What does this fold into?
Amino acid sequence: MVLTGNGVSTFQQVPVRAPFEYMEQFMRDVFVALGTPTEEAAVIADVLITSDKRGIETHGLGRCKPIYYDRIKAGTLNPRTNFEIVRETPTTAVVDGHNGMGHVIAKRCAQMAIDKAKANGLGMVVTRNSTHYGIAGYYALMAAQQGCIAMVGTNARPSIAPTFGVDNLLGTNPLTFAFPTDEEFPFCLDCATSVSQRGKVEQYARLGKPLPPGWVVNQRGETCTDAQAVLRDLIAGRCAFTPLGGLGEETGGYKGYGYATVVEILSSCLQQGNFLKALSGVNEEGKERPIELGHFFFVANVEAFCPLADFKRHTGRLLREIRASTRCPDAERIYTAGEKEHIAQEKQTREGGVMVIPAVQKAFNTMRDELHLSQYRFPWETAPVPK
It folds into this structure.
């Protein structure tokens, strides 16, 4: 980006690399300017930049605006978090987030579950009236890094059609696991229970690219590939993601549908929270309203079962044996969950930060200008303009 003589912001037409630390600090200042306490703003920025560091561009910088920034400005997301424990035992807790910042709520809940597991072997915390919390893997990795195993999930705005159906009822509902190992990185499986998810569609829309066939279907069961139209039609209920495995049973779509339902139950029924269409974010008059999500955090302390070092070594051997197995003739190698994200983080760190595409550059310019954070000049402002 460059500033023209009349003070109008412009931006590059190509991706530009930006330092992680600089972008994280900017996001902290954005949330502080919106009314978030400094410590809570630091949590939100850390979750978002961690996503980019791990190569998950769908949930990093690109989500700062429109998801969180725009919802706070619209009054459907509370920038200050009121964290209320409504029920608690030595191994469990129910939390009400009162529509505060999901990242802040989730990190505190995850640590509560870890602390309970450390003290009692197992811990489970469930949350109602929370909001979008970024990558689920962030909270599962917290447990793995503290010698525990974790299962974490959240419901989301209605997006997935059930097997043999076309209505978008279930959220993309990630079911996420993490295990400590004796390697440089934990095993971490973090993915939606749909073939794809809204963040990927947003990314395709920002890039102006069509969606792959089979990701989304309309009310007639026909595939939809216009990313901008899909984002509109998902909200209006005119299209839906297919579950993992596809729309029918022949390729196992009932499995993704079933797992999405498991996450929906664990994210709403224990904590008596909202589910399915009640999470649409739109009221009866078609106006925006808070999206009151539920989360769950189940943690087991490895030391309650066996010595942590033995578990790490055993798990590492298992994973290395999988990676050493015979690969397809045209495949470079076999990976295990969490490995690609570790490689992406090492690569981006060597190269100096995250690649920021033009649409995200423009969004960050807007936030900077609207919040009068004039101390910031982004790398795309000083980068050479391509000919």
Observations:
- Residues 16-76+353-382 form a domain with the Hypothetical Oxidoreductase Yiak; Chain: A, domain 1 fold (CATH 1.10.1530.10).
